[in-house]
Amino acid sequence: LRGVLPGRTGAAASSGPSGDDDAPADRYADFARSALGRKVVPGLGLPDPAPLRRDAPGAPLAPGPVLVTGLVPVGGGDAAPRDAGAAAAAAVAAAGARVLLPGDDDGTERLGGVVVDATAARSPADLVGLVGALAPRLRRLARGAHVVVLGLDPDRLPDGADAATRVAQRALEGFTRSLGKEVGGGRTVQLVLLSGGGAAGLGGALRFLLSGRSAFVSGQVVRLADPVGDLPDDDLARGSRPLEGRTALVTGAARGIGAATAQLLAARGARVVLADVPAAADVLAATAREVGGEPFVLDVTSDLAPDRLGERADAVGGLDVVVHNAGITRDRRLRNMRPDAFASVLEVNVAAPLRLTEHLLATGRLHRGGRVVGVSSLAGIAGNDGQTSYAASKAGVIGLVDALAPRAAEVGATVNAVAPGFVETRMTAAVPALNRQLGRRLSSLGQGGLPVDVAEVVAWFAEPASAAVNGQVLRVCGQNLLGA
Ligand code: NAD
Question: How far apart, in whole angstroms, are the C-alpha atoms of residue 259 and residue 357?
Answer without folding.
Answer: 21
